[in-house]
Amino acid sequence: MKNRQKFLYATISASTAAALFAGCSTSDDEPTTPSASMEHGGAHSAAPTSSSESATHNAADVTFNQMMIPHHEQAVEMAGLVRGRSTDPALLELATRIADAQQPEIDEMTARLSGWGIDAAGGGHAAGGHEGHDMSGMMSESDMSALTAARGAEFDRLWLEGMIRHHQGAVEMADDELASGIDGPSRALAEQVRKAQQAEIDEMRRMLGQ
Asked: CA 79 from chain center: how many Å?
């Protein structure tokens, strides 16, 4: 009888020890895995994306495109005045070249601003007007009126002098973009404007005998 009781006590003790051992092997001792980390809030540990990485343009880029559009538009308008007012073949050829170069650039800048969700008219121009004449090199209303009324040699002189100032203003605007802008296509256009228009300034000065 005593032997049977001893056997029962031993069995109960073994069962109790097994239960206690199983209880100690709960999640408190479980190793942390990536999936467990995510389940316990690990998702927030992902590194945030820097805002600078998503920036494609800045205020200087916007200003350059918005202001250069009306600037170019006036140059194209000036180029359109040459035929019928000048008989100089070199001036006629230069005017055609300026219009052919700057109209596609206007289209490019307008599309770029649209892609940024920005109104191209923010440059302060309106159809048929010269509200942006305070921009560097822009012709005033009175300048344009005098140019429109002139003919022959007088027209040629006024046009060349006005376009030189106009181009100088564009070069200044391009320099500002290259100094502060970050948009690749805008900077490339600024380089193009600076190079082409400086060459045309030199050409027009030669035409004036300067």
From this structure: 28
CATH of the domain at 103: 1.20.1260.10
Instruction: Provide the pLDDT confidence category of residue 124 given band limits of 50, 70 and 90.
Output: low
Residue 191, domain extent: 57-115+136-207
pLDDT, one tens digit per residue, over 135-162 is: 789 999 999 999 999 999 999 999 999 9
- Find out whether 130 and 140 touch, Cβ atoms under 8 Å: yes
CA distance 105 to 108: 5
- CA atoms of 156 and 95, how far apart (whole Å): 11
**Are the beta carbons of 132 and 101 closer than 8 angstroms?**
no
Residue 13 resides in a domain? no
What pLDDT digit, counting tens, does each position of 47-68 carry?
Answer: 333 344 348 999 999 999 999 9
pLDDT exceeds cutoff 80 at 198: yes
Domain assignment present for residue 153? The answer is yes
The residue behind tokens 């538009």 is 73
CB neighbour burial string for 67-86, b if at least 16 within 10 angstroms, e if fewer: bbbbbbbbbbbbbebbeebb
Domain tally, the chain = 1
3-state secondary structure 28-40: HHCCCCHHHHHHC
